[in-house]
Design a protein that fits this description.
It is built from 21 helices and no strands. By secondary structure, the chain is an all-alpha fold. It has a single domain, classed as MFS general substrate transporter like domains (Growth Hormone, Chain: A).
């Protein structure tokens, strides 16, 4: 549990730096609200982690893996990527070039997600049952949310006193702290004879420099291409992108429905099911069949309200007249205590209650937390009401998050823990983050009150699925899986 609290801390530190803290930074530099909304699409990257997750199950990181093993090797590489990307965001904190800001934010999201893939795969391998998952998920989320709160509030307090560059450099330094602890860890059993600690570290650092550089260049090229395509399509900060986003949201369901008949007929010897790249995802649809469509709809909706609220909550609060320091204080001890309590309650609940009941309680509490922003907007400016709404939001978010992580972990075939969990968590946030990118244009159309009423209602929209989910049973694995 302490180990997974540390891994959660390492993954949680960067999150606000490419989401809510970045939104406030862009607002401070006069960037339009619609463009700030577009930056929420940086958070889309984790939803596509299933694209590279099989690489983490299949390949080792040169050098690091020779002494510390596959999982810790990837975690160490990701730590270096997180630190480098955060430092790069610090040195471009003036935001004079928004494409450059976006590049480093995307790289930070990529390496943060890579760390999560490796840690989640290891967790599912070690703790496969619901009773085992509850405590370890709680420990992981305590570290994750504690780091998110520390980074979010700390960055705002430092930015108010010393500027955005100092804030991002401070978080970059904190993000690097787990790396030496990992280096000091024991060798992976069976790897001790494959070279000493320092030889493995030197080789790993050399390989990491090459990998980080290659990923940065590839991201820059793809980003430039994406911007050119958007410009050629006539999209700009003044465009109403909501209809296009809603159309994109339907495409994954159409694609899955078209592929299901062939997948369900596939035999254990089928190349489709044995493919290293596609096999883990084909297995999921083979086991659940047509029910997979409804299951994907449920996981897409369950956290949608929280994701929609995340990116624009801080700009709304700032617009009400609160200072960065006031927001930072609310996001420190108040948010941390509420988040820890919510995660603990969710972790405890899944060990005591049937999963459908736990999911229902989490959805209701999260919805109430989102509606608290509507209440806050109609109160006189004061730290007491800000603390109360922040606590309600963080408690509900933490509780629903803990329950949801356990539920998704139980859907995974233990033969493919990294790839399938990456797919499920990625798809769970694909639609919400697509819509979140259009949040700025939504606020322009329906106002902040309407936007946060919508986010609260969406948290409750998953409830009608629960009686059906309680009866859902997958087809037994016929390829030797658990």
């Amino acid at each position: 549990m302490p180990l997974y609290a540390l891994l959660g801390f390492a993954a949680g530190l960067p999150f606000y730096l490419f989401s809510t803290v970045l939104a406030l930074r862009l607002q401070a530099h006069g960037v339009a609200l619609a463009v700030i909304g577009f930056f929420a699409w940086v958070q889309l990257l984790p939803t596509f982690k299933f694209v590279w997750a099989p690489l983490l199950d299949r390949y080792d990181v040169p050098g690091f893996a020779h002494f510390w093993g596959k999982r810790r090797g990837w975690i160490m590489l990701a730590q270096l990527g997180i630190t480098a990307s955060t430092a790069a965001m610090a040195f471009t904190a003036a935001d004079t070039s928004l494409p450059l800001t976006a590049l480093f934010a995307v790289l930070l999201a990529f390496w943060t997600t890579t760390l999560e893939i490796a840690a989640d795969a290891w967790r599912i391998e070690l703790y496969p049952t619901q009773d085992q998952q509850g405590p370890i998920v709680a420990a992981n989320l305590w570290g994750y949310r504690g780091a998110m709160v520390a980074a979010g509030s700390g960055a705002l307090l430092i930015a108010d006193a010393a500027g955005w560059t100092a804030a991002y450099l401070a978080i970059a330094a904190a993000a690097f702290l787990p790396f030496p602890l990992l280096v000091a860890g024991a060798a992976q059993p069976g790897r001790e004879a494959r070279g000493g600690r320092w030889a493995a570290l030197a080789a790993g650092l050399a390989a990491a420099a090459v990998i980080l550089g290659a990923v940065a260049i590839a991201t820059a090229v793809l980003g430039r291409l994406a911007l050119a395509l958007a410009a050629s399509a006539g999209l700009s900060g003044a465009s109403n992108v909501t209809p296009y986003v809603l159309a994109l949201c339907l495409l994954p369901f159409v694609a899955m429905a078209a592929a299901l008949p062939r997948i369900r007929r596939a035999t254990p010897e089928s190349r489709l099911r044995r493919s290293a790249a596609l096999g883990p995802y084909v297995d999921f649809f083979w086991r659940f069949g047509g029910a997979a469509i409804g299951l994907m709809a449920f996981v897409s909706i369950y956290r949608m309200g929280d994701v929609l609220a995340l990116n624009l909550a801080k700009p709304m609060i700032k617009g009400l007249g609160y200072s960065l320091s006031q927001i930072g204080r609310a996001d420190s001890l108040v948010a941390l205590a509420a988040s820890v309590a919510g995660v603990g309650a969710g972790g405890w609940l899944v060990t005591r209650a049937p999963m459908p009941l736990a999911l229902a309680v989490g959805a209701v509490v999260a919805g109430v937390g989102n509606l608290g922003f509507v209440w806050l907007a109609h109160q006189p400016v004061g730290e007491a009401v800000l603390y109360l709404s922040t606590a309600a939001d963080q408690f509900g978010n933490g509780m629903a998050g803990a329950v949801f992580v356990v539920y998704l972990s139980l859907l995974v075939n233990p033969r493919f823990p990294g790839a399938q969990y990456a797919f499920l968590t990625g798809f769970a946030f694909l639609l919400p983050r697509l819509l979140a990118g259009a949040g700025g244009t939504m606020v322009g159309a329906i106002g902040y009150d309407g936007f946060f009423l919508l986010s609260g209602a969406l948290s409750l929209a998953a409830l009608p699925f629960l009686p059906w989910l309680a009866r859902l049973r997958p087809r037994a694995d016929d390829m030797g899986g658990a």
